[in-house]
Amino acid sequence: MMFSKIILTLSCLMVLTAHAGTSQVTWQSPEKYADIYASFENKKTFQSDLFAVFENHFEDLAAQLPDGYSLYIKVKNLDLAGAVSFANSQKIRVVDDSTPPRIEFDFQVMDNSNKILISRGVYLWPKHFKFQRSLHANKLYYHELNLIKGWFDNTFAPVLAKN
Fold it and tell me: How many domains does the chain have?
């Protein structure tokens, strides 16, 4: 009985995800990005983990798009909030009001017949970045992901309102 409930739940989840938009993220020349420096991790591990977080975020956002839509992102530059500095002989990332996040990317949205519906370049940065300590701000890459979510919501509000 329990096994059949699990199978039914998984089947429902597969159906739900099959009817959502998808995304694909390409990282163009990440070695030239303004700031994706690791504070204490291995550089390759940090970069891989960082990219996975952003790719998952874009995928979650694209899932809100209509069935058959695909969001293609080509990241051209990334500057994480804060800056890496030394404290007590350890590298740490310090975020303050003077170090806002920035991200530059091109995006395309295509329908299921591969027709380009929208294609633009985007440069995101918060106009009035004010670092505030909060439970949300302690989430990994909170400021950057929030910036992307704001862009997505503003850009796709008309499309999302129709669904």
Answer: 1
